[in-house]
Amino acid sequence: MAMAKLGIQTCNVQNHMREDPIGTFRELAAAGYRYVEVSNFDTEHDKGAGFHMPASELNKFLDDVGIRIISIMFDPFDHLDELCEYQCEIGNHNVVFSRDFYQNRDEVLRRAEWLNQTGATCAKHGIQFHYHNHFHEFMKLPGEEKTIWEMLLENTDPDLVKIEIDTFWAMRGGVDPAEEIRRLGKRVSMIHQKDYTKGHGHEIYLPARVIPGEVMCRAVYDRIENKDTFCEIGWGIMDIQRIIDAGNESGALEYFILEQDWTKLGEFESIRRCYQGMQQFHGIEL
Q1: Cβ atoms of 140 and 146 closer than 8 Å
Q2: Among 54, 79, 139, 265, which is most buried by a count of CB atoms within 10 Å?
Q3: Distance CA 39, CA 34 (A)
C-alpha cells in the first residue's frame, strides 16, 4: 500500500512566518518537516508564493534548508496563469481554494462552475486544483434536500477539482472523516489534519451552534469557533490512524498535512509536539 508524505501548513507558525519567513522555514526543517503547504492571500501584489521573492532565489533557499513547497492556497485567483507559472518554477503542482460561504443554491452552482474553470486553467500548467472544506459545507441551505458539499461534488469535474479534505471540519460538520475519504476515493489527494481537545465532546457538532435562520458567513464562523477545541495533532480525540488508513487505501493520497489553527503553546513548541505526536501512527512517510 502506498504511503502519503507528512506535510505541514505554515498557518501553524503564522506569527513567526510574518516576522521572519526564512528563519521559520529553518525551524520547520529542524523539527523534521520536509514538505510544506504555504498561503498567499495577497496575490494582487505578489504573484509568487507569498514571500516577495523571485523563484530562483526561493529555490536556492529551499534547497539549502531541505524543504519543498508542495501546495499553496491562493486568494484572489486573478492572473492565474502567472501564478501557476511561478508554482511550476518552484516545483509545486498543487493549488488550493480555501474557503467560501453560500446563501443559496445559485451561489453554490456559480462557485462550482468557477471551480471547474479554475481547475482547467491549472491543468494547462500541469497543476492540480483542490477544494478545501470547512464544517458549513456539510449543512443544507434553506429549502434544499442536499448539502452544499453534495451539490459542489456533483457539479464539479473530479479530474479538474480534487479534494483537500479537512478531517477536523468534516467531523465538526457531522461527517465521519474516514468514511468520507473512502467514499471520495481517488478524488482525495491531500488531507488536512488537526486534532480535537479532550473534554469538549459536547461542542463537536458545530451546525447546532448556528442560530436557525442565521446566514452563514465569516462573522458567524468566528463567533462559534472555540480556540480551546484545537490541540496538537496526536494528543486529542480524533481517530487519526483510521483516517490515515482510509487515505492510503485509494493510492491517490500524496500528502497528509498538519494544520493547527490555534495553540496555547509557542508556535515552534507546537510544531515539535505535533511531529512527536505523529510518531505513534503508521502509514505516513515522515
Answers
A1: yes
A2: 139
A3: 17
| Helix (H) / strand (E) containing 94 | strand 94-97
Q: Which amino acid is at 207?
A: P
pLDDT tens track for 63-109: 999 999 999 999 999 999 999 999 999 999 999 999 999 999 999 99
Q: Are 194 and 230 in contact (CB under 8 A)?
A: yes
DSSP tag of 163:
E
- Alpha-carbon distance of 273 to 275, in angstroms, equals 5
> In whole angstroms, what is the distance from residue 151 CA to residue 109 CA?
8
Burial class for 138, CB neighbours closer than 10 Å (0-12, 13-18, 19+) = buried
Q: How many CB atoms lie within 10 A of CB 278?
A: 20
pTM of the model as a whole: 0.96
Task: List residues bridging with 132 in a β-sheet.
Answer: 164
CA 148 to chain centre: 18
Cell 464562523, residue?
221
